[in-house]
Amino acid sequence: MSLTDQAIGRIRELIRTGALTPGSKLPPEPDLAAQLGLSRNLAREAVKALAVAHVLEVRRGDGTYVTSLQPSLLLEGLGGAVELLQGDSVAVRDLMEVRRLLEPTATALAATRISDEQLAEVERHLAAMREARDDVERLNAHDAAFHRAVVSATGNETLLALLDGISGRTLRARIWRGLVDDNAAGRTLAEHEAIYNALSTRDATLSQAAALLHVNNTEQWLREYLSSGESLASGTAAGT
Predict the structure, then answer these.
(1) Mean pLDDT per 10-residue segment, the chain (240 residues)
(2) Number of helical (H) and strand (E) elements in the chain, helices listed first
């Protein structure tokens, strides 16, 4: 480990043990360096690195604070990493595989927890998708919101952050654009309708099956698209 990595580890340990709690203010830089047995430069570099990772927040003129440490904040960088992988067909297939492993199970869990208000939100995005079936940008936005509303109903913030991260906006856009070009948008909309209908009955098994069918069909289309030599890294970015 580099000296900077060791410094980062020491600050993380203070947070892990509860010596620094979410929202707490770090000591001034000289005091922090002395407390950790580091040089001021190393302490400064460690703070910068942890600020980039959203573990710490540097407030100019006020000091440095531990963030809320919420999963949505700490996993925020995952989405950016996924966007960088769009040109790697193997990585894209891996991402879809992860989505297939997580999303159907999340949908089943949502079926057991979803409230009437949350179900109504899912229905609103489904209706908006129907209206926007020829507008890829709007389809993309409401498709992402549809799935986000479903996973949000689980009440599991970590699961929501993970699925938000792996469902890259660019990847969704490419898929929707391809589906519209292949006249397959109607079928995909019907799959979303099946997910909503299963959720409305609070049937976890049926909800999981509907979500699995949808993700499997999307993954199959994507594999065929990639095997044709197309690249998801090209084209216009504008969601499934």
Answers:
(1) 88 93 94 92 94 93 93 82 76 88 97 98 96 85 93 96 80 72 83 97 98 92 75 44
(2) 12, 2
